[in-house]
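G., the chain you wanted modeled:
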Amino acid sequence: MGIEIKRNRTLIYLFALLITFVSCDSNRVYDQYVAVEGNSWSQENPIEFEFQIKDTLLRNNLYINIRNNQDYAYSNLFLITHLNFPDGKKIVDTLEYEMADKTGRFLGSGLSGIKESKLFYKERSIFPSSGDYKLAIYQAMRKNGDPEGLKSLEGVTDVGFRIEKIE
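Predicted structure as tokens:
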């Protein structure tokens, strides 16, 4: 009877492993995170992602993913993005996202002290040419009345970039 129990456990583990592999994220084109050193994002140091695009016909949703901890002191987040195309063109965007509700409770998912927010960057986008792209993301937070902005944004632990194909 002991051998049969071990065999059943092994089959259960193998079945769970198979489900994990089969349920892989089939819409993912690119998904990468960069850890923010010391959980303090410097205004002068962008988070950069380099990725290659092959399919120029497929529509994609692009996301910026932010992980923050309890040290994040703001209800919103301002970002500036620089998307560089293979042909040298560049698109610069200024973005604002809500990070907390009116009561100060962080939005996003996660049960621990870290919250993860999946923020729309570009919706239903088509990349015009195949090749190597580069995305630089800068934090652009500032206190009211301060034109200089925050030199360092505390409480951001990781910044991610994700491309999902739309079926």
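Residues 10 and 16 are 10 Å apart (CA to CA).

Shout if anything looks off.
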